[in-house]
């Protein structure tokens, strides 16, 4: 795959998706199968039997192992074959790759790179999760038919919301407000405040505001795969302090991007908010609204991908609003290039030995 970082935690699934039957999903263009052991722990393996490459997800879970549905070989959570029907000897090559997995924030995270680097402490911290007065909404996974970097750029682009999301989060008053982009060591942020304006449809429908509002959108991207949008709508005329923003309608809108292939992405979203807490009907409506909003993005970025495939181009003109998206893309491209260079350097001595061995033979 192009421009992917393997040494990172990606969301494989929401925890509720994985049970005691094989669960399959493609991640970074590799087939993954996951399952739960009897103690509830997760295991994740390459979804190819070491014998004939039949997907293990076509088999079943037996005594904390995955049993191949073709010849019955059983693999434990480490990927080792522990049973071959009809013979005592287990071939040394009867092993499949296993992947580090961890559960946090209602999600199953997978590490696709060097397992020695898989520190669960590197999983992104979710703001206000499990904080009194704040509610968490887990959205259904969406399948976006585009390279994940197109989604990264979309998530760093406040300017598109006015036009792509006219009936949900779009606000015409924001269209002439230029976004500001800033870059830190570990993330990039693009933001803007829209002052003394009518609230957007999603806030106006709630009836929470009688007059004009100030509204901010802070689009933070933590490479390679986490977007956090801090959205605040508050009565106009207040100082923009953290305390005042918390007294308004505030939400942290998370998107977790898991590349599937060069032209498809698993799109997970989570919404952490300080309004409508405990209101099941409101939460159901909110889930529908956000699902519709992100599908609107899917329509646009998928169409973009189709034209990129046809033309071989990414874009032909550049605007001021591209500053944030371009920086986010460059951060990931640099990370991927550094990782590839490191992997090539580590492989060089072994490759050289291999070449000498072949020549000698």
How would you describe this structure to a colleague?
The chain has 361 residues and is of the alpha+beta class. The chain has 2 domains: 9-120, Rieske Iron-sulfur Protein; 125-334, Naphthalene 1,2-dioxygenase Alpha Subunit, Chain A, domain 1. 25% of the residues lie in helices and 30% in strands. The chain contains 6 helices and 18 strands. Strands 11, 12, 13, 14, 15, 16, 17 and 18 form an 8-stranded antiparallel beta sheet that branches. Strands 5-6-7-8 form a 4-stranded antiparallel beta sheet, with no helix packed on it. It has a 3-stranded antiparallel beta sheet with strand order 1-10-9, with no helix packed on it. A hairpin with a 5-residue loop joins β7 (74-75) and β8 (81-83). The radius of gyration is 23 Å and the shape is globular. It starts with 8 loop residues before the first strand and ends with a helix. The model is unreliable at 352-361 (pLDDT under 50).
Give a brief outline of the structure.
By secondary structure, this protein is an alpha+beta fold. Helix content is 25%, strand content 30%.
Q: If you consult CATH, what is the topology of the largest domain? A: Naphthalene 1,2-dioxygenase Alpha Subunit, Chain A, domain 1
Main sheet: strands, sense, barrel:
8 strands, antiparallel
Radius of gyration: 23 Å
CATH architecture of the largest domain: Alpha-Beta Complex
Beta strand count: 18
């Amino acid at each position: 795959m192009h421009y992917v970082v393997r040494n990172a935690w990606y969301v494989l699934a929401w925890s509720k998706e994985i049970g005691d039957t094989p669960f399959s999903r493609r991640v970074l263009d590799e087939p993954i199968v996951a399952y739960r052991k009897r103690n509830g722990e997760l295991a994740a393996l390459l979804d190819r039997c070491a014998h004939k490459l039949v997907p293990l997800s076509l088999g079943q879970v037996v005594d904390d192992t995955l049993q191949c549905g073709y010849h019955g070989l059983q693999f434990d959570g480490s990927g080792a074959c522990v049973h071959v029907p009809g013979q005592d000897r287990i071939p040394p090559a009867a092993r499949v790759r296993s992947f580090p997995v961890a559960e946090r924030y209602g999600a199953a995270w997978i590490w696709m790179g060097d397992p020695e680097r898989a520190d669960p402490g590197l999983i992104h911290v979710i703001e206000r999760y499990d904080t009194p007065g704040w509610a968490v909404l887990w959205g259904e996974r969406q399948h976006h038919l585009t390279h994940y970097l197109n989604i990264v750029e979309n998530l760093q682009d406040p300017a598109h919301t006015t036009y792509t999301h006219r009936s949900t989060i779009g606000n015409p008053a924001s269209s002439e407000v230029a976004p500001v982009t800033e870059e830190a060591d570990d993330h990039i942020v693009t933001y803007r405040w829209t002052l003394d304006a009518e609230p957007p449809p999603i806030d106006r429908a709630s009836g929470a505001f009688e007059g004009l509002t100030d509204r901010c959108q802070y689009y933070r991207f933590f490479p390679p795969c986490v977007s956090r949008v801090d959205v605040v709508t508050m009565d106009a005329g207040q100082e923009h302090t953290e305390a005042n923003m918390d007294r308004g309608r505030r939400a942290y809108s998370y998107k977790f991007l898991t590349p599937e292939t060069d032209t498809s992405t698993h799109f997970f979203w989570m919404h952490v908010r300080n309004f409508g807490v405990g209101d099941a009907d409101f939460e159901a409506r909110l889930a529908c609204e956000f699902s519709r909003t992100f599908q609107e993005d899917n329509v646009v970025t998928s169409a973009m991908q189709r034209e990129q495939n046809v033309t071989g181009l990414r874009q032909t003109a550049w605007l001021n609003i591209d500053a944030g998206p371009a920086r986010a893309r460059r951060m990931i491209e640099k990370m991927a290039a550094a990782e590839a260079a490191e992997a090539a350097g580590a492989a060089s001595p072994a490759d050289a030995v291999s070449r000498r061995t072949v020549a000698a033979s």
